[in-house]
Design brief:
Protein name: DUF1479-domain-containing protein
Radius of gyration: 21 Å
Largest sheet: 5 strands, antiparallel
InterPro entries: Gig2-like, IPNS-like_sf
Strand order of the largest sheet: 3-4-6-12-7
Oligomer: single chain
Number of helices: 13
CATH superfamily of the largest domain: B-lactam Antibiotic, Isopenicillin N Synthase, Chain
CATH architecture of the largest domain: Sandwich
Bound molecules: fe (ii) ion
Shape: globular
Amino acid sequence: MALPARFADLKTSIATSYPNFEKNVTKAWSEILAELATVTKTIKEEGYIPQVNFADLSNLSKEDIERIKRRGSVVIKDIVPDEQAKQWKEDLKAFIKANPSVEGVPADDKQFFQLYWTKPQVQARSHPNLLAATVWLNKLYHTKPSTGSAKLEGVDMGIALTYADRFRIRKPGITWNLHPPHIDGGTIERWEDSHFRRCFDDLFTGDWKAHDPFELEGRLDARSSLYGRPNQSSVFRTFQGWLAMSETAPTQGTLRVFPDVLLSNAYIILRPFFSPSVPVDSEEIYDAKNWKFGDAVFWHCDVVHSVEREHTGDGDSAVMYIPAVPLTPQNQAYVERQKACFLEGQRPPDFPKGPAESGFLGVASVEDVLSKAGLRAMGLAH
Ligand SMILES: [Fe+2]
């Protein structure tokens, strides 16, 4: 899809603000393609998404942690007891039954719901283990070596904030086309917003191996929702998260990720500057000679994560969307606005406008927040 002409100007301005841009990124591009060719072959054999037990989080080896950071994804097992997760799902089902007018899709057999403040959601987000895992995830981020240990104003990775999102109870046998491969937390903003773009400085200079997706600085004041589109997160989530409420296997309507965040960032950020001379699904696409430094803006689907179209299992595939969000000034400002929505039973600021939840039976109140850290996370205590 061709983008408006102003994006060609943006590309030119990026290209002219880094010395020797064309030479440096062309060299980087050929290295990135070669690495991608290898990684896409070996990754399947590696058992690629790290799995750890919640109880072991504080005892992981340096190698385990480095692997999690490179993959960019981690399964944390036994974060809450199975019985608790199943009970939450049953409670959500009961909520939907008691409130048949709840908005959801597909309209004739609702499985994904515009609900944010049910008791199970408020309880899960404020569960001490979920918040502890959030802090652990947040702390995988760090300041640049040049910033040293200086404390960033208003930032505390040890305090978790809540970002209210929805849940789904997906039934087998129904195809979903809602989530083809995409990145969350802003897309074009990664180039267009000058704050956000700083996260990728090392890619634009061609020093792609030095890129560190876990550096905090550029993320803190990144504007990830320049267009205010519904469902576009305006907060800095260190990790997006799903809390499982059922057991699923591959092909059963679950998550797919591209498990190398350094490499996918390097590819995606430099991709607009190059155009291929062979079809993108051909075998030769990894050969640098089949790409030339770009002269038009074309955008393709950046393969980072997607939701499986098919669900071939027998049971449902149910999750709550609960990301990891650290205390930063921008995030805190959002949490204040989100708190007002919670207290009024309105939908949170980043999401599609629609009927309030306050009229439904079984909506959560402040008493349903499970922990002190949970109250802090929602801006209800300091
Ligand atoms: Fe997503």
